[in-house]
Write a structure and sequence with these properties.
The structure holds 2 protein chains of 2 kinds. By secondary structure, chain A is α/β, with parallel strands linked by helices. Chain A folds into 2 domains: 188 residues, Periplasmic binding protein-like II (D-Maltodextrin-Binding Protein, domain 2, 3-Layer(aba) Sandwich); 188 residues, Periplasmic binding protein-like II (D-Maltodextrin-Binding Protein, domain 2, 3-Layer(aba) Sandwich). In chain A, 52% of the residues lie in helices and 13% in strands. Chain B has a single domain, classed as MetI-like fold (Orthogonal Bundle), CATH 1.10.3720.10. Chain B is built from 15 helices and no strands. Classes of the chains: A alpha/beta, B mainly alpha. Chains A and B meet through α3, α4, α19 and α20 of A and α14 of B.
């Protein structure tokens, strides 16, 4: 990229982020990410502000669309020899091959200087960044998928108490249906159905069985009675969601917000939608981590990776940014704006809302923390499971057939 | 005789030298990009390449997995249904429209433009437009119910059994205009005397078309066939815009499988295996046909 182009981009980014004028001697780093919705853009603005406050220039490379759209663009830029200076990816196995090919910067010295091994909680986040003892990414936040969001308004209409766990919810479903309310809102997309499947698995089969299948690829457990119960529960959930014909997750969340649906199983990013709609946690909606049966959360989330760039000044700036992302101030500002949980337990987040507090409690207790699906399964296996879920939820496939197909996917997983 | 021909040979090679030099870039492109790229893809389809292409061969593993994957089988089935229906219906509708326009009707130019117009739209626009037309609340079903027929049901895009026909409607709407134009050009190329002779012999109009005109239009039909067939095998954007493969995976097509496994699932080997299968299916159909069509004529 030419100098001219770079300065133009820098100018645009500066205007967009309405940051103060920056001294020219700081480093310029281009940062790509896919945080483009309202709340996300505010959160990424916090990162840019912190970076510019240190006298550097943040060149914003936002890619519209979800991670599924942005990730191939980011990866092909790194592979194609036109790397950005820093990029968002989900920690886990997505970057494994890029690291093996020597395309990503080793951050071990920053990690050691800032004592990441001690402060990052849960430690599995750092493990997901580690390959052969070296650290290649800076974890930024934690997003967990195991949440059920319940509409108080819908239950009032049906004259019921808000359920405290999945079993109560299933029992309350007929009454909801009588009141003309869809019990379970579900977007017709494979990844959402897969989240529901994963969450129900942890709630019904328990953490040990979930780990045995997802981490250890244990076929005996996947064919066993616990997983049979899981697939039957998912089939029951499918019946509860039969009248939900929306596609996108935020439209499904909107059904809960407008009280036309009783509940939704979705990750904690759904909270942003409730906030934007002006709903208050605990009075307008409530949340059940792990469906109220197993209060566990996985620790997926976002991390920053730094492609190798053959320039000493740039490399120094990349390391500086890595240190900044994990610093306490940035962690507080960013995560409060994003509604995600911080990667370190030693900071004060008392202004977070009731649902975030529940998540923080689980994190602080140290129990019930799971590595995310991204960390256990490769993108290939994930895609296959999502395809299976997409088929299962939209057809009348039997629970036994789905389990058999699932077992064959897990038996092939690497 | 022999001395003459040996003396002529180098001259043959040098004849139209500038034309031959000018075509070198295209020959190189064809060899390196098309043939070379195809060979590279086929070779890598036998490897376990994930995010990056690597040469660790695993034999037919990727193909075994491909043919045991439900999504691929559904994709193939959809392509077959879409392909056969689209081929027949597009030819039929295209020819019928052309024949009607050829009957020296009024406002022929206006009709021709209207029928050809959908072809000027991209598949993405076509897909979105038909997504709305087939939407049960706002589209055809909603309009008919609004007119008083309350029990009318026409909701192909949300029914996994018939969703592919919802896509087929959009595909035919988009494609038949072009075929009509090609057919019309072919009809205009038929000598007026043929019609006069048929009339003298007392042959009816329909019979003249079926028995005399259509056999004379063989080259035009082949052009149309190639155009339709290439459109069928590469169908992708229409599906993405209209249903994105849903509901569930019931409207998936092979090209979409290739893209998603190469980039979203980060499994190049699987994507390459699927694209190789697409190439094989094209070759299996095209080669015998091309041999009969073009090889036969040279000999005759």
């Amino acid at each position: 990229m030419t100098k001219m182009m770079k300065s133009l981009l820098a100018g645009t980014a500066l205007t967009a982020l309405s940051a103060s004028v920056v001294l020219a001697d700081g480093a310029e780093l281009e940062v790509t990410h896919w945080w483009t919705s309202g709340g996300e853009a505010i959160a990424v603005g916090k990162l840019a502000d912190a970076w510019q406050a240190a006298g550097n220039t943040w060149i914003d490379g936002a890619i519209a669309g979800s991670g599924g759209t942005a990730r191939p663009i980011i990866i092909s830029r790194i592979l194609g020899g036109d790397p950005m200076a820093a990029t968002q990816l989900n920690h886990g196995r997505q970057a494994e091959e890029l690291i093996e090919a020597g395309l990503l910067l080793d951050l071990t010295e920053v990690a050691e200087a800032n004592n990441w091994a001690e402060i990052i909680n849960p430690s599995s986040l750092l493990e997901a960044c580690t390959l052969d003892g070296r650290i290649y990414c800076a974890p930024l936040n934690i997003h967990s998928a195991q949440w059920m969001w319940l509409s108080h308004g819908a239950y009032e209409k049906a004259g019921l108490d808000v359920p405290a766990n999945w079993n109560d919810f299933v029992a309350s479903a007929p009454a909801l249906q009588e009141a003309g309310i869809v019990p379970l809102a579900m977007g017709q997309q494979g990844w959402q159905q897969n989240i529901a499947f994963g969450t129900i698995t942890i709630a019904i089969a328990g953490v040990d069985n979930w780990l045995a299948v997802n981490r250890d690829k244990n076929i005996d457990v996947a064919t066993g009675p616990e997983y049979t119960a899981v697939f039957e529960a998912v089939a029951a959930a499918r019946a509860l969601a039969a009248d939900s014909n929306v596609q996108d997750w935020n439209l499904a969340t909107n059904m809960v917000i407008t009280d036309t649906a009783g509940a939704q199983i979705m990750g904690d990013w759904a909270q942003g939608e409730f906030q934007v709609a002006g709903e208050v946690a605990g009075t307008d909606y409530s949340c059940l981590p792990g469906l109220g049966l197993n209060a566990v959360l996985d620790t997926g989330g976002d991390a920053f990776y730094f492609p190798v760039i053959d320039d000493d000044a740039t490399r120094a700036a990349q390391l500086e940014m890595a240190a900044m992302l994990v610093s306490p101030e940035v962690q507080v500002d960013f995560n409060l704006a994003k509604g995600s949980l911080p990667v370190r337990g030693d900071i004060d987040l008392s202004s977070a809302n009731a649902c975030m507090q529940k998540g923080l409690e689980i994190l602080a207790s140290g129990n019930g923390i799971l590595p995310s699906g991204d960390m256990n399964l490769s993108a290939d296996t994930q895609t296959q499971v999502e395809d299976l879920m997409a088929e299962f939820w939209s057809s009348d496939m039997s629970a036994a057939d789905a389990q058999a197909a699932y077992v064959s996917i897990i038996s092939r997983a690497d | 005789m022999t001395s003459q021909s040996t003396a002529k040979r180098p001259v043959q090679l040098l004849r139209n030298l500038s034309a031959k030099i000018a075509s070198i870039p295209m020959i190189l492109t064809a060899l390196v990009v098309f043939v070379g790229g195809t060979a590279w893809t086929v070779v890598h389809s036998f490897t376990s390449s994930r995010l990056l292409p690597k040469l660790n061969f695993v034999g037919f593993d990727q193909y075994e997995r491909l043919w045991s994957t439900r999504r691929w089988l559904i994709s193939i089935e959809n392509l077959a249904i879409y392909g056969i229906c689209s081929l027949i219906l597009t030819l039929l509708i295209g020819f019928t429209l052309a024949a009607l326009l050829d009957r020296k009707i009024r406002f022929e130019g206006a009709f021709r433009t209207i029928f050809l117009y959908p072809f000027a739209l991209s598949f993405v626009v076509t897909g979105l437009a038909w997504q709305w037309i087939l939407n049960p609340d706002f589209g055809v079903q909603g309009v008919v119910r609004g007119m008083g027929w309350e029990s009318f049901a026409f909701d192909p895009l949300n029914n996994s059994e018939i969703v592919i026909f919802g896509i087929l409607i959009a595909g035919i709407w988009q494609g038949s205009g072009l075929i009509m134009c090609i057919m019309l050009a072919g009809l205009r190329g038929i000598d007026e005397d043929i019609w006069k002779a048929a009339r003298v012999d007392g042959i009816g109009t329909v019979k003249t078309y079926v028995r005399i005109i259509i056999p004379m239009m063989r080259p035009v039909f082949i052009t149309a066939l190639v155009l339709i067939a290439s459109g069928i095998i590469k169908i992708y954007d229409l599906v993405v815009a209209q249903t994105n493969g849903g509901p569930g995976i019931s409207s998936e097509v092979p090209a979409k499988y290739v893209i998603e496994y190469m980039f979203r699932a980060q499994n190049l080997g699987q994507g390459f295996a699927a694209s190789t299968m697409m190439l094989v299916s094209v070759i299996v159909i095209l080669v015998p046909w091309a041999y009969l069509e073009f090889g036969g004529r040279k000999r005759g």
